[in-house]
């Protein structure tokens, strides 16, 4: 599970690990973030017409770098 989450959230996982978090702590901190980030990166929400069209679990607290990565991917589509 840790490697699957890291495949999507490499920067976030590496940062947590550098800050001394164990995998036992790092995985729960990043699991849902990786799920939501993967959906955004895969284009699941590329053609949403209004915020009310987004499913409840489409948002998750993420830092500006993560949202920037998602927006860059959208611009490339």
Question: Which key terms come to mind for this protein?
Answer:
77 residues; mainly alpha; 4 helices; FBX48 protein
Written account of the structure:
The structure is a single chain. The protein is built from four helices and no strands. With 77 residues, the protein is mainly α. The chain has one domain. It comes from Eudromia elegans (Elegant crested-tinamou). This is FBX48 protein.
The H/E string reads HHHH
Average residue-wise pLDDT: 89
Question: Per the principal axes of the C-alpha atoms, what is the gross shape?
Answer: elongated
- In the predicted model, the low-confidence regions spanning at least 5 consecutive residues are none
User: How many structurally independent domains?
Assistant: 1
Total helices: the number is: 4
Content-based structural category: mainly alpha
Helix content: 55-70%
Strand content is under 5%
Q: Please report the distance between the alpha carbons of the first and last residues.
A: 29 Å
Rg over C-alpha atoms, rounded to the nearest angstrom: 13 Å
Q: Characterize the main sheet.
A: none
What is the tally of beta strands? Answer: 0
Secondary structure topology:
Elements (H helix, E strand, L loop, with lengths): L1 H7 L1 H9 L4 H19 L22 H13 L1
Concise account of the structure shown:
By secondary structure, the protein is mainly alpha-helical. Helices cover 62% and strands 0% of the residues. The mean pLDDT is 89.
């Amino acid at each position: 599970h840790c490697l699957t989450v890291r495949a999507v959230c490499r920067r976030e996982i590496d940062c947590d690990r550098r800050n001394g978090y164990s995998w036992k702590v790092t995985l729960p901190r990043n699991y849902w973030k990786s799920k939501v980030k993967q959906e955004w990166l895969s284009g699941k929400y590329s053609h949403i017409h209004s915020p009310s069209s987004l499913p409840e679990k489409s948002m998750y607290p993420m830092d500006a770098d993560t949202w920037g990565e998602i927006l860059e991917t959208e611009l490339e589509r």
